[in-house]
Design goal:
By secondary structure, this protein is α/β, with parallel strands linked by helices. The chain is 39% helix and 21% strand.
Amino acid sequence: MASALLAQEMPVPVAVQARYFKKVFVYDKTIPKDGIKLLVVYGDATPSDVKDEIIDAFNSIGIKTTAAKGAQIATAGAGVNVVYFAPGGDLKAVKEFCKSNGILSISGLPNLANNGDVSIAINAVNDAPKVVVNPDRLKTEKQDAADLMRLR
């Protein structure tokens, strides 16, 4: 039940998100084009099937992906280029880590980008995926992503 509830919060299926995010990463000059390392931050409220689906989706398209709870982010986040905030994760930990370390934050929850909690999210508009970019958050996370503004 909780898994279905969280899935409804993410308007775009995780596999589609992963493909879109991979295309978006090309526009961010701060992220290396090869060897992208992504950390999924989840929490006790995150169903394990949702966390596993996110990890599998990114790994399946060649993006090395691991996961950690918010309290482990400082250790688990060493060497990552991108942090994916999973539903039920520790948003405060993600925001602080990404700001302090100049790491890009992403999510499948579009309201987080609209609110400035993450830099980029994927939404569905007329049943089609649409990238949501928060330019202020990109600056906070020290991302060289001026080209991303064209995607808004």
